[in-house]
Amino acid sequence: MRLDCTMLNALLRHYDRNLKCFIFNGNSLYFSLVDVLLITGMPIDGRPVIGRIGKTENLFFNAFGIDPPPESLDGGRIRLSWLREKYSNNPVRPDEDGWAHYLRAYIMYVIGSYLIPDDCTGLVSAQYLGLLDNLQEVGSYAWGAAAWASLYNSLDRGIVNGLAYALMVFAIEHIKPLRIELIGETVDLPMECPLMVSWSHLLHKRLKANTVPKFGVYMQILGNVTDENFVQRPYERLSHTLLREGYERYALQLAKACSVTLCINYHIVVPHKPNNYARQFGFENIDLDSIPELPDVVVEVRKKGPKKDLNLADHGHFPLYINSWLGRFPLRGPRIGMFILVSLIFFNNSDFYSRTALPIFFF
Fold first, then answer.
1. Where in the chain are the domains?
2. What confidence score (pLDDT) does residue 31 get?
3. Can you give the residue ranges of the Aminotransferase-like plant mobile domain (predicted)?
4. Order of strands, edge to edge, in the sheet holding 259-265?
5. Please, are residues 244 and 252 in contact by the beta-carbon 8 Å criterion?
């Protein structure tokens, strides 16, 4: 996957920090949990990515069975270069603990390089190691929702950090002139989820050859689009695919993807309000008065000064935030009603996540 940084820069110029959406020539587009789920395949439902922040050295030793070498850390963050050099080649005859060390290193590399990159390039926060003690539970976390929260936190700061490739696919799916500029009009669109896999094949040659449009071309396209140029609900073409083999991965989560909630990634809390852009999701007649108000996000959880163990679940307003996540309110309408109905009939099973979470995460 090659990033088109020129496109991302043009998209960033059209982001409205107050409305939390992209504005193109007066038209709004909202990058939501629906997009994260169908483009990346990562879970947007499950346990919030939150836990205890401990001493880096302890987290490191518990995860890898060794004291952290000086070249492995930069403050409370692990160098991706060290993970790559130390764990890129599988051991010849590993024991169970040895495999666990390599798997944790791989997951941390995915988190740091794509999922939730650190502002400082080439590093990943050691705090995520606290979620990897039991590798059987890794897929039970809502990684997609955490990445979504981190992306919007970075957009508010004027950068694109995390889910950058998914944001490119989102723009191509929704803005027809942009799609035509990149791949033409006659190419068959991807029909299977996660969409990012198929789109990476379609875009690979164009991006590898460095034949992408210049910044001015992107700005002209995005600045002149009309209402007719937008594909408001591009994923409708996927319904027949989702209702077959692939649907088990997405059924329950689609029911929550159009929900009003607070998405959490440790100290980052971001409101998810698809009701603000109901037309984009096919809910033109929603009773907005029935949707509960979200609590205000007023707490910066990360403490200043020396690091101490901190249980975020009990700190400040986080119990309120967690309750908002657990009791999130799905939008009501014919489309989401269909998703919920099919989910209840086929997949109302308590061990759903234990059977499907890892295949979703390791797309």
1. 52-140, 250-348
2. 96
3. 4-285
4. 268-272, 259-265, 329-330
5. no
Range scoring the smallest mean pLDDT among 21-25, 93-97, 273-277: 93-97
Give Cα 54 to chain centroid, integer Å.
25
Asked whether the beta carbons of 255 and 335 are under 8 A apart, the reply is no
- The neighbour count for residue 246, using CB atoms within 10 Å, is 15
Q: Name 330's bridge partners.
A: 259
**pLDDT bracket for residue 301 (50, 70, 90):** low
Summarize the confidence of residues 232-236 as an average pLDDT. Answer: 87
| Encoded tokens for 310 | 């901190």
Closest-CA residue to 4 (of 183, 194, 291, 208) = 208
Q: Identify whether the C-beta of residue 82 lies closer than 8 Å to the C-beta of residue 75.
A: no
DSSP class of residue 298 equals: -
Q: Compute φ and ψ for 287, nearest 5 degrees.
A: -85, 95
- Residues 177 and 225: their CA atoms lie apart, in Å, by 8
pLDDT of residue 334: 47
- The CA distance from 97 to 64, in Å, is 9
pLDDT, tens only, 125-165: 999 999 999 999 999 999 999 999 999 999 999 999 889 99
Specify whether the CB–CB gap between 164 and 115 falls below 8 A. Answer: no
Instruction: For 144-195, give the DSSP string.
Output: HHHHHHHHHHHHHTT---SSHHHHHHHHHHHBHHHHHHHH-SSSPPP-SSSH
- CA separation for the pair 1, 88 (Å, rounded): 19
Both tokens of residue 192? Answer: 């299977």
Sequence-distant (≥ 6) Cβ neighbours of residue 274 within 8 angstroms: 30, 32, 33, 34, 258, 259, 260, 280, 281, 331
